[in-house]
Specification:
The chain is 50% helix and 15% strand. By secondary structure, it is an alpha+beta fold. A 6-stranded antiparallel beta sheet has the order 4-3-2-1-5-6, with helices on one face. Strand 3 and strand 4 form a beta hairpin. Helix 2 packs parallel to helix 5, helix 3 runs antiparallel to helix 4 and helix 4 packs antiparallel against helix 5. The longest helix has 40 residues. The chain is elongated and about 70 Å long.
């Protein structure tokens, strides 16, 4: 039995449409600025929603307090976040969206090469001492670096007009400071290991 080109094309389009429906995903935007692509199953609970990843039978529970919005496959966005001063949620929905944008811009554009390298150098010095107190120097360095003022560069902002918004700067600085501390810890840890290795090599050669 032969199949005409027109029939074959119609069948192919039908299969593609079915596959698209099967693998369709909703998009969750977290307060942290991260995204998650899942299938949202239920949002009726006061504090939780249930989701499922496509291709998985496992159902996961997420807390609404961590979520800003859900963008369904059809394009409709439902904002989950609610201002609630009793729960220390002081931002309005519009302000929280701007805050999240600040977090996302910092996550994408803020770099910490000098802080990371500085922590590594301090870590090497501590490692060379071959002392159990070696981590103290990098730790102190991280505390000092993590408390410094964060400069927001215009070129790293997706919308420079937001730079004048305090909530945007708060979101940006929070994420930037987190990256600064995390990368300093990593740099310090690597430095300590290199310092220990170098010190042991020096001792072994004597």
């Amino acid at each position: 039995m032969s199949i005409s080109l027109k029939s074959f094309s119609s069948l192919l389009l039908l299969l593609l449409a079915f596959a698209g429906k099967t693998f369709a995903q909703d998009e969750i935007l977290y307060i942290s600025g991260d995204y998650a692509n899942v299938k949202v199953l239920d949002t009726t609970d006061y504090k939780r929603i249930t989701v499922q990843k496509n291709g998985s039978k496992k159902i996961k529970t997420l807390y609404k307090e961590d979520i800003y919005s859900i963008k369904y496959d059809g394009g409709k966005e439902v904002i989950i976040y609610q201002q609630d001063t009793l729960e220390n949620e002081y931002f309005t929905q519009a302000e929280m969206r701007i805050y999240i944008q600040g977090e996302q811009d910092a996550a994408a554009g803020y770099k910490t090469p000098y802080a990371t390298a500085g922590a590594a150098v301090v870590g090497v010095g501590g490692g060379l001492a071959l002392s159990i107190l070696a981590p103290i120097a990098p730790a102190l360095y991280t505390i000092v670096v993590g408390s410094r003022w964060i400069k927001i560069r215009k070129k790293y902002s997706t919308n420079p007009d937001l730079l004048k918004e305090e909530v945007y700067r708060m979101g940006y600085e929070k994420e930037a400071r987190s990256k600064l501390i995390q990368n300093s810890i990593i740099g310090g840890g690597i430095g300590i290991i290199l310092g220990y290795v170098a010190a042991n090599v020096i001792v072994w050669k004597r």
